[in-house]
Amino acid sequence: MKTVNPIDVINKSRVHSFHILLVAWLFFVLMFDGYDVVIYGAVVSTLMEEWGMSDVMGGAIGSYTVAGTAVGAVIFGLMADKVGRKRVIIICTALFSLFTFLAGFATSAGIFTVCRIIAGLGLGGVMPNIIALVTEFAPQKRRTALVAFVFAGYSTGAVVAALTSRALLPTVGWKPTFWIAIIPIILLPLIMKSVPESVVYLIEKGKMDKVKGILTKVDPTISPADRIEMPKRTQSVVGSTFSQLFQEKRTFSTMMFWIAFFCSLLLVFAMNTWLPRLLMAAGFDLSSSLLFTAVMQLGAILGTVVLGPVMDRIGFKKVLVPLFFSGAIALALIGYSKNTAIVLGLITIIGAATIGVQNLSNTFVSQYYPTHMRATAIGSTMAFGRIGGILAPLIVGLLLSMNLQPQYNFGVIGIASLIGGVALLFVQEKHAIYREEKKVDEKHEKERSEAIPKIAEADANYTSRI
């Protein structure tokens, strides 16, 4: 029998079937999260025509949905510290899946809006808890890449939404595109069986048998007879509180994260809700606009998957800040071109610099704060960011109602990308938990390196005496 530290076991584990299955299911859940968010933007022009809505009303429905996600992010982020992340992920998945499905039966804008708001609660709650869970279980050396891959699921779902609506709208209308959202509920029993509960949560609740069961799956060399060492970070704090985001010199960086997320989510929801309409205003037809929407999401996937490992090597800010600024440039230029190839290139950059930035920023926040605070940190940061998401559909709806030139519409949106980059530039990485962990690892490595010559010298002396 040996003593094992759960955090060390997870950090030093190798990626195998346990991690692959966990990542696959969380990818699947976020795929439908992305699908359910983007499907409204794909069909909003059809709904406006069918129900006689104005651009402002169409934007208002999008804003009400995002308001639901903001409330859900706070409620379910805090709830996770009380009932566990797994339970919250299951509840949120059932919520957004069911009510997106029911929205497909709406006969009026009012009923549709109510369904979207309730679905928004689940959409807002599921993401921060998935970030926290995959961050907790990912091996330290592969953490950023695995988290980034999971969040590529969001953009994958968005691509499916754009292509599905492009295929179904001309033939069977908008309602079947919402009925597809019921799939996660059908597969919920499998998700419940395959996704583990947070080890940190289980330790805090004293459920050591369950902790051992999970650790044996993380690392098959762990024996159920081994003794669990209480990690220092979970011994000192039971649960996490909102006030801890502003302690230990984290206040300024927390505020910068909030501003950056305000801007990035404004960009995400502006693009997801209105990109087809913005491109139609620029002279493209609906079919082409939906295709461009799919290309934007592919750009987001490319940016997330490719730049995630790059962040592991060179650091978060060295990737995210230039990416924000490249988005500002692309948005400033796209309104001036009617060339399809140029627009496709700029749209790809915009996808990486809006949705891709959001995915990668989630990884940044999840690793900046200690494990026991991650759900609350991510939930509250995204909740503040969703204020930008709430305003985005309204702002762009108002811009469209003013009949401005396309370059002005995109230029106004691009200002958010510029501000977001500046905010992340001022995040103080020296106070991040991963920097502290790195210092500890370097100290241990140094002590081990210094000990090796001493051990060798002692062995040599002993040998000479013999």
UniProtKB/TrEMBL annotation:
Residues 442-451 have a biased composition (Basic and acidic residues). The chain crosses the membrane at residues 20-44, 56-76, 88-111, 117-138, 145-165, 177-203, 255-275, 287-307, 319-336, 342-362, 383-402, 408-427. InterPro entries: MFS (IPR011701), MFS_dom (IPR020846), MFS_trans_sf (IPR036259), Sugar_transporter_CS (IPR005829). It is a multi-pass membrane protein. Residues 22-432 form the Major facilitator superfamily (MFS) profile domain. It comes from the Bacteria. Residues 442-466 are annotated as: Disordered. This is MFS transporter. It is found in: Cell membrane. Keywords: Membrane, Transmembrane, Transmembrane helix, Transport. Its main location: membrane. It holds the Pfam family MFS_1.
